[in-house]
Sequence to fold (354 residues):
Amino acid sequence: MSRFFSQKYSSLIPYTPGEQPKDTQYIKLNTNESPFSPSPTAQLYFSKAAENLQLYSDPECRELVRIASKRFGINEDEIIFSNGSDEVLNFAFMAFCDDNTPAVFPDITYGFYSVFAQINNLPYKQIPLNDDFKINIDDYKNVCGTIFIANPNAPTGIALTVNEIEEIVKSNPENVVVIDEAYVDFGAESVIPLTKKYDNLLVTQTFSKSRSLAGGRLGFGIGNKKLIQDLNTIKYSTNPYNVNSLTMAAGVGTLIDDIYCMDNCKKIIDNRAWTVDELTKLGFSMTESLTNFVFAKHSKVDGKVIYLKLKEKGVLVRHFDKEPLKAYNRITIGSKEQMAVLIEKLKEILEEEK
Ligand code: PMP
Fold:
């Protein structure tokens, strides 16, 4: 820390992204990326957009908004695009929390929520999950604060139903409820349709997982137009050009090829089922994941040992070195071939650890 660093950030602990090593050709199953390339139209539009890179990007993201509003069945003033969904989530912390309105979220969830609260100097309350890592929806009824729920949750992969989320939204008419649907396309159900009915519901999604655009950084929020106006006030006060023109073009191409992306999600769901079966045969137990990752622990071998040995053997998974998560590893579901290598390497490790 330099002697110039603002006092107000001196105790800030930044979010730790998953490792991105460059030294070996790892099989990367640690950051929930897609194993599939961006859609062909996305790649084509991206290249064409490079011809006009001397111009600023469209701050209103009009083409993207037009095509996305059709895809998601909403009006054009009910969506905002952002630099990854992390950015729109941060906007939501800035816009909808203050000293009297703390952020409220589960104690085990996406690690960035507490960082967003801290950097914005906002109070926050963490609600423990049940022992089986499930969210108890009664804990979120009539709370005094802005609720943030990842659905499905991370790193557990467990999803609430639309009815359960509606109960939470309905019981908090004076508070905004933010549902982070980063992983919704892998088997859970989106609550976007509920944004028509409730003016306090904001849904965020990302192009990073189901749409193979993690490196492009594209996310969005959908909600009542007044909520979107508030988020735009934050956006236009920080970075009006938050989505660059290459990414915007790739996003349009991606939505044109939506069938390609949704077919890829089906492949991931199949690979997940295969992986869960194989892991179970090897003595692992898992939470019931509706995402592109599984959260798995072995009956005999320690989670950290598995993580380190897999890394030695060229397979990266995500390990959280704290209770009660340390027995587990979060393993991204990749291609069939990648999952076959994972299982082979795990068999070797279990043999070595006998
Ligand atoms: N929400 C959750 C639950 C996530 O796991 C992630 C990915 N790390 C994000 C949001 C943000 O993803 P992105 O910024 O790539 O859209």
Notes: The chain has two domains: 13-36+259-352, 40-256.
